[in-house]
């Protein structure tokens, strides 16, 4: 059976980036001889701006938000039940998205590297303020959110296991958790202490401002894990990217890993940038994050070894040649940049010497 990858598309520039993703998947799967079909969700999900344009009252917004969330959740569950291991999603309305992340117990994972240090950021998307439900009464919105020992333990379990895979020759030098735990009556401290004992590791539970101060004053050890509440990590992700001298938001993708057992085999890839509704239909959205995600899926989920490195070389070559979208200081369209990238990958692939066959 031909492997499949899921595709979920939101409003704004979602349709344009979905076309980029489909094209790159098709061309790379042909180059690397790893057939991969794309299973696309039949629903186009709202961005925040499209939702506000379509609905001007709270009840309609809540209804459409819930419909999007339920549909995307079921799409992910269906993919997982069919053995699909990856889904690429363009940006959708955050309120719908976080309902799904809460239900499927998601963490966002990003690895950032600099010459002298490496950071594994594991962002808790399954609990806290970004999750929960809203209640409305005239002039007041009440939002109820939860933290649980079970989910906190699952997130720590995942972070430690992922860190040991990331650094198999000794694991992390430091494990830090950035949460506003002083608001949680001491219970959160106890859960973290129990998890640290279970894994026989030292976990530093710090307030967000303490994490920031230490980053500024001391930097990071060579190998650091930060398990972070959404309230901190959502704001700090871009800052950390800048700190490590890696890509900007517009250039980068991340992984969302689901911890619920029935969907645990499904990894969601997304661009770090948002829906960019103001660019919709102009063929000027930066495709870098999307093409990187497509190459990662080809390599990690379809067996196309070398696709990620080949795409990185192509991105560097094309940028050096001045082929860039306006946000990156260029004058080229999305289509022109993708044309140049795929031509560069194809040129390199065609010029590579054939692999040696045993016995030849």
Automatic annotation (TrEMBL):
GO terms for molecular function: metal ion binding; oxidoreductase activity. Keywords: Manganese, Metal-binding, NAD, Oxidoreductase. This is Isocitrate dehydrogenase. Residues 4-341 form the Isopropylmalate dehydrogenase-like domain. It comes from the Bacteria. Its cofactor is Mn(2+); Mg(2+). Pfam families: Iso_dh.
């Amino acid at each position: 059976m031909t492997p499949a990858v899921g595709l979920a598309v939101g409003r704004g520039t979602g349709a344009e980036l979905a076309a980029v993703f489909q094209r790159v998947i098709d061309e790379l799967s042909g180059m690397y001889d790893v057939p991969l079909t794309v299973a696309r969700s039949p629903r186009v999900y709202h961005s925040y701006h499209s939702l506000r344009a379509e609905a001007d009252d709270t009840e309609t917004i809540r209804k459409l938000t819930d419909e999007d969330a339920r549909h995307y959740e079921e799409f992910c569950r269906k993919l997982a039940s069919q053995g699909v291991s990856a889904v690429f999603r363009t940006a959708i309305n955050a309120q719908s998205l976080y309902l799904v992340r809460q239900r499927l117990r998601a963490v966002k994972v990003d690895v950032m590297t600099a010459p002298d240090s490496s950071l594994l950021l594991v962002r808790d998307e399954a609990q806290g303020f970004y999750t929960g439900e809203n209640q409305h009464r005239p002039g007041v919105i009440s939002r109820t959110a939860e933290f649980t020992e079970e989910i906190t333990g699952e997130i720590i379990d995942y972070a430690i296991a992922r860190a040991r895979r990331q650094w198999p020759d000794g694991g992390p030098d430091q494990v830090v958790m950035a949460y506003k735990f002083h608001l949680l009556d001491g219970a959160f401290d106890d859960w973290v202490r129990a998890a640290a004992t279970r894994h026989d590791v030292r976990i530093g539970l710090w307030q967000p401002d303490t994490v920031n101060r230490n980053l500024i004053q001391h930097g990071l050890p060579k190998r650091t894990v930060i398990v972070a509440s959404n309230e901190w990590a959502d704001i700090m992700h871009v800052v950390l990217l800048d700190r490590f001298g890696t890509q900007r938001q517009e250039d980068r993708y991340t992984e969302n890993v689901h911890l619920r057992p029935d969907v645990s085999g499904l990894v969601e890839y997304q661009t770090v940038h948002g829906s960019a509704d103001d660019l919709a239909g102009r063929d000027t959205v930066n495709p870098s994050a999307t093409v990187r995600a497509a190459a990662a899926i080809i390599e990690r989920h379809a067996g196309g070894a070398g696709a990620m490195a080949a795409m990185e070389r192509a991105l560097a070559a094309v940028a050096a040649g001045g082929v860039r979208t306006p946000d990156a200081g260029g004058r080229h369209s999305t289509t022109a940049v993708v044309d140049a990238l795929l031509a560069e990958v194809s040129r390199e692939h065609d010029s590579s010497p054939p692999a040696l066959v045993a016995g030849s």
